[in-house]
Amino acid sequence: MTFVCCWLFESCAEPETSEEMVTSGPTTTLGSENIGDGSNGLVDKYFYDFDDAINATFFMYGGSRFDYTYDKYRQIFNDDPPPMTMANFPDHLLNVSPDSTHFLTRYTIDTLVVGGDTVTSEIGKIVPDSVQLFSSQFKNLESIEWDLDAEPSLQRYRLRNSDWVQADTMLYYSDTFDVVAYWAVLDTPLIQEGILFVDSSEWRDTSYSFVKDDPIVFINNFEFERTQLSSDSLIFRINTDCNDNNQWDGAEEGDTDYNGDGDNWDVLVESIDNVDYNNDGDMEDILYEFVDRGNGLLDPAEVYHDIDGNGEFDLNEPYEDRNCNDRWDDTETDDMGNGMFDDTEQYTLVDVDGDGTEEKQLYLIGEVPNNLLVNWNNPEDPVVMLTVELGDNLTDRWGNVYSDIIETVNFIDSKRQDIGDIDSMVTLYTRQVVGHITDENRQPDDYYITKTEWTTSNAGDVRRHYNYQIYSQDQHVNQLVYPSYFLPRGFYWSPNQIQNGFWHKEFLENEILYYTYNGLLRDGEQVDTAYYDTTDIATYYIEKTFQVETSQVTLPAAKVKASDNGDGTWTCYRDDSVVTDVDNCARADTTFLDCFKITHLLNMTMMGSGVEYGQRSYTWLAKDHGIVRSELFLRWTEHPLDESLSSVFGTPDSLGQIWVGYSRLDLADIDIERSGNVFRQLISPPRTVHLNELGVLPDFDFEPYKLSNQSGLQTIDFRELTP
User: Fold this and answer.
1) How many CA atoms lie within 13 A of 328 on its CB side?
2) If DSSP codes are grouped into helix, strand and coil, which group holds residue 535?
3) Domain containing residue 25
4) What sign does the dihedral 644-650-653-659 (CA atoms) show?
5) Measured between alpha carbons, how far is 627 from 714 in angstroms, rounded to an integer?
6) Adjacency order of strands within the sheet including 578-579
7) Which of 523, 575, 531 is nearest to 548 (CA)?
8) Of 330, 260, 264, residue with least CA distance to 300
9) Is 267 domain-assigned?
10) What are residue 529's DSSP bridge partners?
């Protein structure tokens, strides 16, 4: 059996978070005396009185079966849906005073001591271990391709890379160290102000390793072949040989300052400027203020790729701009310049022949791979290289050969990892702490714990799950939770670093589960809140909406399923079938007429990234039955564990939001033993259990409290979601 332990303490550290309320909502009805249709009911009658002993069973529809009816499920699987049970523990309360320091006393567990502290072992514990080393990741360049689909001005080479290449190795070793184990009721670091809830059946172990000053060093050299652009970086070159003569030249010489602006580098078009610059009476001249030098050759047409095959250059076709004038030039009939002033040619110094002297190379290195490569291996028929594969070579106009534009290189990636060499290990076994409450106005008996249990099945792998819920009631009904926050992909290194799709604050906090008006649930109640929550991870904008309406719901939850025929057979109410075992009957429908339907809506926005996460739940509370149906929907803009699941569910609603049906609970059975039952009080009276009695209390499945994202009875785990 699980017991609730509480300890009042004198000091605590506040979590490094802050909340700033920004609005109380456009609609908040708690201040209004008359709302809705006037229907109301005491929350204790519709939710639960946790002083009662409650055992309930729900049918659980999750994942792809969220929308199944009871009949459809039985038709497909010939069985009832999987159950989820809920029970509370009203009979035990554990109270401890702060001066009970003897409950922190540590006792040696001799059977777990190995090493120098015993006469049976002088060496200590020998533990085989291993360390895995990973190389750096890289991608091999497989080819480069000119992007003909882009706009002409944006065309460039695209690099085609392989998948990520990475190697790893496992190195094995043995570590020898002494082991000492102790047990105590509580650990010293847990001395904090407030109330501790303790699962008295579960031992929690905390190990402290003491390591030597010198670590164990592991080194591994990973050897790779890598394909990459060669060092000449041809596709990144910017041509500076603007008269295309394969030699460095100074600036072109000035001639006549026709426009009188004090320089000699203008190209003047009289028809455009409407000025007769040379006073010859002809307004059609194009005048150069400088000597537009050629290269002493009759240059062939600049090489281009004839996309449409019409034998003519078109403006959308890529070409080799040999003279830097940003236009295609046809074959020369006269030795001409490029029609623009050429300043002193820039260059890059490179030791081409390895003699220690750097030579001028007529190019600069840019950041964009937009230099179109042309192979002049056949000077009579140069070819544009739209694609460059491994091993491809290139010859330029002047006969220079560039081998292996994409080259293969060998390299070694050395990785080191230091592992602590353990000298000894001390393990402390203490009772599992379920929760910690820092509200000084709360008393131990203000809190109630329930436990839910269920199973999931995936490809025949059946797994059992459980969770604890902690409730309290003041003006409203509260659920104590570790606040959970959605964390999108990219904010962690692996899915293992984010539990169930969420990270959690380290302190329990009250969250209002059901707003009430003087203890009443009321039709038409609505409360909207919004606030900024600043955490160590990020600032989140939290929006919540709470709504209540009267309702009714029909469920397969009747306790009586059949009539006795008196001859060893039963007639099932649901389908009139005759069976010999009443347990073989499907459940008949029960309509709960006196219900309140409660809608919760949570929207969480991570500020800065804009990533959103939403929870929407519908809960039906029936008089004298508590929760009879619970439906939970989720949405997100970036799934935290699987990017491929971010937008594969459902269709957008009117707001463009896609909600995923996560889990539906339908009440199957409930048994409530009222706290006013005199017989129950006589045989099992509530009692206060002290810490020194924890060691003699019976076990309760050895199941500790777990961090999780909770919404009422629902536990949210993104790992359960599949397309």
Assistant:
1) 16
2) coil
3) 5-102+426-558+587-720
4) negative
5) 12
6) 562-564, 570-572, 578-579
7) 523
8) 330
9) no
10) 544
Instruction: Name the residue with higher pLDDT: 237 or 442.
Output: 237
In order of 240, 277, 325, 346, the CA distances from 337 in angstroms are 14, 21, 10, 18
Domains in the chain, number:
1
State the average pLDDT over residues 694-706: 47
Token pair of 211, please?
């390591």
User: In this structure, is residue 216 part of a structural domain?
Assistant: no
Amino acid at 80: D
Token readout for 47 is: 């939710």
**CB-based contacts of 633: which residues, under 8 Å, 6+ apart?**
615, 616, 617, 659, 660, 661, 662
Residue 720: CB atoms within 10 A of its CB come to 16
Compute the mean pLDDT over every residue in the chain, rounded to the nearest whole number: 80
Beta strands in 509-625 (DSSP E): 509-514, 520-522, 526-534, 539-555, 562-564, 570-572, 578-579, 590-606, 612-622
Contact 186, 413 (CB under 8 A): no
The predicted structure's pLDDT at residue 526: 94
Count other Cβ atoms within 10 Å, centred on residue 167.
Answer: 15
Rounded Cα distance, 573 and 588, in Å: 6
Pairing of strands 107-108, 168-183: antiparallel
Whole-angstrom distance, CA of residue 381 vs CA of residue 316: 21
Is 297 inside a domain boundary?
no
Q: Above 70 in pLDDT, residue 210? A: yes
Amino acid at 441: N
Instruction: Give the pairing of strands 92-96 and 687-689.
Output: parallel
Task: Give the DSSP letter of residue 147.
Answer: -
Residue 552: pLDDT band by 50, 70, 90 thresholds? very high
Beta bridge partners of 169: 133
Q: Select from 436, 709, 437, 535 the least CA-distant residue to 19.
A: 535
Whether residue 103 is predicted with pLDDT greater than 70 in this model: the reply is no
Range from 322-326, 406-410, 675-679 carrying the lowest mean pLDDT: 675-679
Residue 471 lies in a domain: yes
Pairing mode, strands 286-288 and 267-269: antiparallel
Q: Can you tell me the mean pLDDT for 123-147?
A: 90
What value does the mean pLDDT take over residues 616-637?
91
Structure tokens at 526: 């609505």
Place 721 in a pLDDT band, splitting at 50, 70 and 90.
Answer: low
Residue with tokens 């009904």: 477
Specify the pLDDT at position 701. 52
For the record, the structure tokens of 95 come out as 């109270």
For residue 235, pLDDT over 60 is answered with yes
Asked if 454 and 445 count as a contact pair (C-beta separation under 8 A), the reply is no
Alpha helices (runs of H) in 568-695, residue ranges in sequence order: 678-683
Give the C-alpha separation, 274 to 640, whole Å. Answer: 67
**pLDDT digit string, tens, across residues 398-420:** 999 998 899 999 999 999 999 88
- Are 504 and 497 a contacting pair, CB within 8 Å? no
542 touches 551 (CB < 8 A)? no
CB within 8 Å of 473: residues ≥ 6 apart: 43, 446
Where is pLDDT greater, at 266 or 191?
266
